[in-house]
From TrEMBL:
Pfam families: SPIN90_LRD. It comes from the Eukaryota. This is SPIN90/Ldb17 leucine-rich domain-containing protein. GO terms for biological process: actin cortical patch assembly; actin cortical patch localization; endocytosis. One of its GO terms (cellular component) is actin cortical patch. Residues 465-487 are annotated as: Disordered. Residues 235-372 form the SPIN90/Ldb17 leucine-rich domain. InterPro entries: SPIN90/Ldb17 (IPR030125), SPIN90/Ldb17_LRD (IPR018556). One of its GO terms (molecular function) is Arp2/3 complex binding. The lineage of its organism: Eukaryota, Fungi, Dikarya, Ascomycota, Saccharomycotina.
Length: 487
C-alpha cells in the first residue's frame, strides 16, 4: 500500500523469534475492558507506538509487516472502544516537531490505514484539526525537500583522487554534496510525505471541507507540489501522491470559487509553463491510461481550466499538436466505451471536448472530424443513449452536451432540431443540480473577469515561510462571499 523502505536493514530472525515478536505486539494492544480508562489507554497506545518504532526495519521491513502492525492496533479493544481518544492522541503526537522520524512514519501509516478502513474516521480526524496537523507536518517535509531533495539525484559523495595531488590539479570540492545520512533522511521524509499527501487526498475527496482548510495552503506548498513533479514515471508513489493531491486541491478551489473570492493556486502555477511542464506531461500520460472514474473526472476538471480563456491567458498554444491529438483519441475512446452506470463521467468528458475543439489548434486542423461527427450525432439522440434504460437526468445531459458541441463547432455537422426533446431535457436540467462541479457554467466567466487579478500570475511567491511564524499566526478571516450568494 505504501512504499517499502528503500534500504531496509533486514536482519535474520528465526521463525520462533518472529512469532514471539507478533505475540508481544498483540499483547500490548489487547488490554482488558476493565482498563479502558483514558490513562491506561494513553499509556498502552504510547507503549505500542514505541515498540513498533523500535522494531521498524528490524522485524517490520515490508508493506505486509507495516499493514499487519497497523491492523493489530486498529482491530484491538484499545482502539475500537476508545477510537476518538486514540485518533486525537495520534494527531497530538504527530504535531510534536522533534518527534522521531520513524515514529512519525508509524503514526501517519496507522492513520492512513484507519482512513481507508473506515472513511468516517476522517471526520473524527478533522474534528481534532486533522487537516491543519497533516498540512503543517507535510509543509515541514516539503521545506527540507525543496532545499535538498533534488540534490539526491545529481549529487554523490566525491572521492579523493590521489592522482590530483600529483598532477597539480585542484582537489574535488564536495561543495553541497549530501552524506549518506542526508540521503537517508530525504528517503524518510519522502516516505512520510507520501502517506501525508494520501491522507490529505482522502480528506479532500471524501469529507466536506471548509474554506479555512484551503486558506492555510500557501504558494510555496502548491508550487513545490507542481514544480517537483516528474513525468518520466507512473510508478513512483511519492510522485503519484503529489499528482492526486494537486487534482483534489484544484477541485476544492473550483467548488469554493462559486461562493467565495478565493485564488486558485493550482491554476496560478498551472498556466506557467516553466513550472507546470512535467505536471502537464504526466497529466497527459495518466489521462490516456487511468481508468478510475473519480480520478478521470478530477483530471477533466483541470484540463477544462487549461482550455478555458481567462483574462490575458489564451489556451491556443498550451498543448502541442500531438498532445491535442492524444486528448481527442482518448476522449473518443472513452465516450464510446463508458458503461451505462458511469454517465456522469461521459458528461464530464463532453464538457472538456467543447473547449478542446473550440479554443485550440484543433479548430484549424479538424483532427478526426468524421469520427467526432459520427460519435456526437449518435450521442445527441436520446433513444441511442438510453436504449433499454430509462431517460435519467445524466443521459439527458449527455444529449444536450453532444448537441451543443455540434452546434457551436462550425466544422461539425449541426443536428436537426428536436424541439420536444430539447425542451424536455432542458427542463430536467434546470430542475435539479448535478452531483459534480459544473465545468461549463457560463456565469463563471463573468465572475472570473471580475477577479482577473487572481489569475494574472504576475508574481510567483514561492518562498517557504518560517513554520514557527506560520503556526503562531492566527488563521485569516473567511474571504468575502460573492454578491448574490446566499449565506
Amino acid at each position: 500500500m505504501i512504499l517499502d523502505p528503500l534500504s531496509p536493514n533486514i536482519e535474520s530472525h528465526t521463525q520462533d523469534e518472529i512469532i514471539e515478536f507478533w505475540e508481544k505486539t498483540e499483547a500490548i494492544a489487547n488490554i482488558s475492558k476493565e482498563n479502558l480508562d483514558e490513562p491506561h489507554v494513553n499509556s498502552s497506545l504510547v507503549a505500542y507506538l514505541k515498540f513498533a518504532t523500535d522494531s521498524y526495519k528490524i522485524f517490520i521491513n515490508t508493506d505486509r509487516d507495516l499493514y499487519r502492525m497497523s491492523l493489530i492496533l486498529l482491530e484491538s479493544p484499545l482502539f475500537e472502544f476508545k477510537k476518538e481518544f486514540c485518533l486525537s492522541k495520534l494527531q497530538s503526537l504527530l504535531n510534536i516537531d522533534l518527534l522521531e522520524m520513524n515514529m512519525k512514519f508509524i503514526i501517519v501509516y496507522i492513520l492512513l490505514c484507519e482512513a481507508k478502513k473506515n472513511v468516517h474516521s476522517l471526520e473524527i480526524m478533522l474534528k481534532f484539526q486533522g487537516f491543519t496537523v497533516f498540512y503543517n507536518v507535510l509543509y515541514t517535509q516539503f521545506a527540507y525537500l525543496s532545499k535538498y531533495g533534488k540534490e539526491k539525484t545529481v549529487v554523490c559523495k566525491q572521492q579523493y583522487n590521489p592522482e590530483d595531488s600529483k598532477t597539480g590539479r585542484p582537489l574535488h570540492s564536495p561543495d553541497r554534496s549530501l552524506t549518506d545520512i542526508d540521503l537517508a533522511i530525504i528517503d524518510e521524509m519522502k516516505q512520510i510525505s507520501t502517506v501525508l499527501m494520501d491522507l490529505l487526498f482522502q480528506i479532500l475527496k471524501y469529507c466536506k471541507c471548509v474554506i479555512a482548510n484551503l486558506q492555510i495552503v500557501d504558494n510555496f506548498f502548491v508550487y513545490f507540489l507542481m514544480e517537483s513533479m516528474r513525468s518520466d514515471t507512473m510508478d513512483d508513489m511519492f510522485n503519484n501522491a503529489q499528482f492526486k493531491l494537486l487534482l483534489a486541491l484544484n477541485e476544492q478551489y473550483m467548488m469554493f470559487s462559486k461562493e467565495f473570492d478565493i485564488e486558485n493556486k493550482v491554476y496560478k502555477y498551472l498556466i506557467n509553463g516553466s513550472v507546470s511542464k512535467s505536471f502537464t506531461e504526466l497529466l497527459l500520460l495518466k489521462f490516456n491510461r487511468v481508468s478510475d472514474p473519480p480520478l478521470q473526472i478530477m483530471m477533466c476538471k483541470i484540463i477544462y481550466l487549461i482550455l478555458t480563456p481567462r483574462g490575458d491567458y489564451v489556451p491556443m498554444n498550451f498543448f502541442y499538436t500531438n498532445d491535442l491529438h492524444v486528448l481527442i483519441d482518448v476522449l473518443i475512446r472513452e465516450l464510446q466505451n463508458i458503461s451505462e452506470d458511469e454517465e456522469i463521467l461521459r458528461n464530464t468528458l463532453l464538457r472538456v471536448l467543447l473547449p478542446l475543439l473550440k479554443n485550440t489548434q484543433l479548430s484549424k486542423t479538424h483532427y478526426r472530424k468524421d469520427d467526432l461527427n459520427k460519435l456526437l450525432i449518435y450521442l445527441s439522440t436520446l433513444d441511442n443513449v438510453c436504449v433499454d434504460s430509462p431517460a435519467l437526468h445524466e443521459r439527458q445531459v449527455t444529449v444536450l452536451l453532444s448537441r451543443k458541441c455540434l452546434q457551436q463547432i462550425p466544422w461539425l455537422k449541426a443536428p436537426s432540431p428536436l424541439p420536444d426533446e430539447d425542451s424536455s431535457a432542458s427542463s430536467n436540467m434546470t430542475s435539479r443540480n448535478s452531483s459534480i462541479v459544473t465545468l461549463g457554467a457560463i456565469d463563471n466567466q463573468d465572475i472570473l473577469a471580475r477577479k482577473g487579478h487572481l489569475y494574472s500570475n504576475r508574481e510567483l511567491d514561492i518562498s517557504a515561510e518560517s513554520l514557527t511564524k506560520r503556526k503562531a499566526r492566527a488563521p485569516p478571516p473567511p474571504p468575502s462571499r460573492k454578491c448574490g450568494t446566499s449565506k
